[in-house]
Amino acid sequence: MEVYHDHQVEEILIRFQNLRSKSARRAVYLNVLNELRVDERRELKNHIDKTSFHRDILGSLPLELAVQITSYLELADLFNLQSVCKRWKSLLINRLVRDSVLNWRYGPGTVDTSSNLAFLQFARDRVMLERGQPVSQSHFSWQLQTYQISMNPMDYHSGRYAWVEMDTFVFRFCTENRDVFDNVRITDQIVAALSRRGTCHVWHLHTNTEGIFHLPSANFNRFVANGTKVAFGFRENVLQWDLSTQTTHAIRVPTGLHLIILHPSQDRLATVHISNRDTGRFAGSIATDRAVFTLRQFYRDGNTGAFLDEEPEILPLPSDIGPGGNFYEDLTDRKSRCNHRLGSLHINWHNNRDLTEALILTADPCTFQIYMHRTHQGSIHNVGLSMTAIAPDLLYYIRKADGNPAIWISNPRAKRAHRPSPMLSRELLRKEVNWEDFDRRFMILGDGCSVLLVDASGLRVWSFDRDDQAMGAIPIS
């Protein structure tokens, strides 16, 4: 459209620009519109239609501000949004942007972003875990001597799976006097088995080292392992034993012990406790609006050898958990047998007695960061058997969907906190198992390398690591 820059036009434009109030400007342009002829209105409409009202705010910002905004993106968004325009691609591959996203989502030092290859490999593997998309699957047939999975203590870590059978063997380990074992734990370095007589036998996976220690009491409610250490939780004490030093340490802790986290390499541990904000104690059940979760960290003093505690930290509950319900612990033996890397509480709601949910606590053993997962409605059948933490902040769990069991993924820091994994759920549908029988016949285990589905006929393994897969792995396209 041709514009005449004579003095009359310029005077009108200047006077219009000098109008400060919205009402004055609106009065002028509405009156001008009323003065337009039909052809002039048509010409004005065509001009408006060709005018773009979109503005690339992100691309126009200084890098420092853009970094603050992009830090809230999810990892997959860094790649998906690169196709918007060249400016966005240039921005999203910037190391500062990558560092901000990784620091916000996963903590500092997660991966060296100066190496483009290392970052791409981490991003690819992490997105596959978040979406439940393994690269291969394997199946190993067997016949457990006990029909119910819940009666066979088992554990998994870093590609190794261990279980207890009634002939006293733990994987390939047994004692000279053929002790009968009730429980087993495995890490990347040791296998620990607990006998019915309260003796804990520990074998190193890579050396001939082994050790034995005796529990002072059978009244423990937590049995955990990490690195070369094992720990047992009692009412007011945690007993830690280290194979590398063959020494035992007793650490006094408050009541309400809910979770023990062992550092894999350092003489450090953490505990999570639940208590009533009014009484300071926990008697098995507590109102959701009176519950307090406390994280306590302990470290070994280099001079005295004793474990000292740091300032306790109050853990905030998920924002969608309010009054009107009760937390309670499932104290069945199955939970202590099968899931020592999680803290789990059932939730009953007063206005719906038939609805049972769960609050699951997962942890990073290196940083002691705690993550809380509130499962979807109707998702929990047996807490101890139906879920596994494959990463500190990622929980795979079994949920009843459309009448059938399905594997879902919880990520409390994601925009979509819960998402299904159709790829992993297909195997459950093929088994054609009733939901009521699920906890007796199935169990899931796993970590960032693999996810395992165990039943009485064998072991199904889904691998996420392209470079380290199970034997007989079949690629998944």
Automatic annotation (TrEMBL):
F-box domain residues: 55-101
One Pfam family here: F-box-like
Stored SMART domains: FBOX
Superkingdom, taxonomy of origin: Eukaryota
Record protein name field: F-box domain-containing protein
